[in-house]
Amino acid sequence: MAQTSAVLFFSKPRLQSLLDELRTRGYCVVGPTIDQEAIIYDEILSVDELPRGWTDEQAPGQYRLRRRDDDAWFGYVVGPHSWKKYLFPPKTTLLSAEKTANGWEFIPRADDSTSFALLGVRACELAAIRIQDRVFLDGPYQDPLYRERRQRLFIVAVNCTQAASTCFCTSMKTGPRCEQGFDLALTEIDSGFLCDVGSDVGQDVIAVCSAVEATSEQQQSAASARQQAVDQIERRMDTSDLPGLLLGNLDHPRWKEVGDRCLSCTNCTMVCPTCFCSSVTEIRDLNMDRVDRERSWDSCFNPDFSYLGGSLVRNDTASRYRQWLTHKLDSWQNQFGTSGCVGCGRCITWCPVGIDLTEEVAAIRETSTP
Ligand code: SF4
Ligand code: SF4
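^ inputs. structure came back:
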């Protein structure tokens, strides 16, 4: 993507023009909105559906919405949803087979033609999309559904101006500033949005916002707002001995301790924006004349996920937690050349017993076998 250097500014009401323009171009605009007392991602038609004036307070095993002192439109961090549901849907029918007079007919399931425009993508989430691009597109076999959706994607990133206590993107070098991988990147200030353009189509679309070159005062306000997020990040993960630390300590007693606390509920993998495991199931109808092959998100915390040769390979919770963490932070790097973690903190917030991977890594390091 071409990235232009001029930073633009437009007033807040103009964001509706951007939404309208994207919809006119055929995009389904999905962005942050409030549902069931959480900020989730869903289709939005109007800026009135944004979580204006709300923020999210997060801690291990805790998430609460709270009213802000101001009317910020993007003054929250990240919630339980991630954008992966639009590129790698939780459930997909891959193929159907129907019995006909001439035998079985196989019908490949084409993806619907929806083009998504993502509004409000954070820097760690851009990094997560890059990681999933490696997984689904860079190997010898590409995932056609992911590829088609990814090619049609439009991304409006929004720089964080606030961080949660669970964020550690600075340790993972994924944020909080959006540096690449967007069509447009906004920074919210009181009077409007500053906008970096990251692609030719972004340049084309932003024309509807009557954007002008940002003044130095506006740029200074945006820099201060972004710095506020940097200053709020307190959680750290030391990555200096990763990969190696975890795979070098497979018999560490900490695995048993965390296994005793872990419920194997799969929450951490469901909310993680980079986890990509799935299972394929064939479901036949009651008349036995139709079979659908469905792919669904799965998790290495599910016992059946390691069923092999008539038994479970990882038959206790400690071994399943160890599999998740060693893959995420250690063997992922050998497999894909990056860490599998972008430091978004979701797995910490949404773990019902508050297991925190940054603490687990530190505990293993503290008494690791040299
Ligand atoms: S492992 Fe946890 S902190 Fe890392 S990307 Fe996944 S959900 Fe976010
Ligand atoms: S670490 Fe927490 S979220 Fe993950 S499976 Fe265990 S209990 Fe569930």
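Residues 247-366 form one domain. The chain has two domains: 8-232, 247-366.
thumbs up if we can close this ticket
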